[in-house]
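User: My collaborator sent over this chain with a note saying "see what the structure looks like." That's all I know about it. Can you take a look?
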Amino acid sequence: MEEKKKKFSLMSAILSVICVVFVAEAAAPVAAIGNSQFFWWIFLLVAFLLPYGLISSELGTTYIGDGGIYDWVTKAFGHRWGSRVSWYYWINYPLWLASLAVMCPDLLTTIIGIQFSTVASVVIELVFIWIIVWISFYPVSDSIWILNGAAIIKMVLAVLIGGLGLYVAFTRGMANEYTVSSLLPSFDLNSLSFISVIIFNLLGFEVICTFADDMENPKKQIPQSIVAAGLVIAAIYIFSAFGISVAIPTDQISTGSGLIDSFKLLTGSTDGWFIILVAFLFLLTLFGNMISWSLGVNNTACYAAENGDMPKVFGIRSKKNEMPIGTAIMNGIVASVVVVIAPILPNQDLFWAFFSLNLVMFLLSYVPVFPAFYKLRKIDPDTPRPFKVSGGDGFLKFLVVVPMAMILISLVFTAIPLQFDAASLSEQLPITIGAIVCVIIGEVIIIAKKIKK
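Assistant: Without extra context I'll predict from the sequence alone. Here is the result:
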């Protein structure tokens, strides 16, 4: 039988990385940090993105396959840690899917001008969820046009918001005063709780490794796409963050609708054709986000299930195209349950509530990745490494410790209540409880599957 033609070119790989890593809806929570966000962006680009990109490039080209970070951690620390990583990595996805679903009714209201009831909103959210599930039944090569299109739209929105910000800054002034002191790092608890969003915005490069089977030359394309996309992503994040900070005073930024609110304020219009177009394009990027991430997350969870480290339902594949449909359906079920119960939850900033929990679980899944890189260098030195990070043992330890410390510190400020007034507790305590419940479920899976090491 003739081998199928590979459809993933280098440009498609670069655009797919941009689609995966650049998260347009996360720009507003970062802008809520204030002017010091620019310091944190630059600091984390150096302290986190650089070592993470190097490590992902080496591991992704050395251990090519569907397992991604699960494979790396399992090879280094055994199946118990592999099970934990695959569970944390998976559970974040349906929570994130739910957080984006709850944005859809408001975006549709902006587009068509109709206010939706609670029941109608839930129906819209469920439709969004199951469209994503249905598309994820098909191979990544069938969805290249969606990934490429979403990446281009994201870049267009980022350039537009940044360009409008520059225009308004020169013609009308800025909503936030820019001084040297305001650009210095802010260490108040509210600002520090959003630092995790910047790290979240810089994660996802390893997802491209799970597309290896659809690439023309993965050992070259993976590091090339990571480097090229990383530079583009850094630029568009900072540019779009500037546009939002010009439009809205920091203390008035909405974590859910900040991007659309910025366009409205910068243009002075709330319902014109341009705002409708922006809302429509933003809605398309939500589909692109979830489709691109589903292809990586589903493969990882299915691969883990096939190796006995996740429940068997996650290992169900399509008989037609071998796609991990069991994981995709579980995504839909969990996300659907979340949006159905959402209207009765006390915290009605639903986007931030679900997004924060997704954020905590997602960051937890990456904690073992960095020491896994170092250990694999020690226990598996003879495996060919098409891309190998240069440097001595001290430098490698530095690459491991610094980004891992960044994740752990950000988790503390996001998941653990450090202020005990009623408002702070009502916002953070559900995240803490939700994270604990998710971790306990992961440990139950390990016990139920009788994973010994």
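A starting point for your reply to your collaborator: The radius of gyration is 21 Å.
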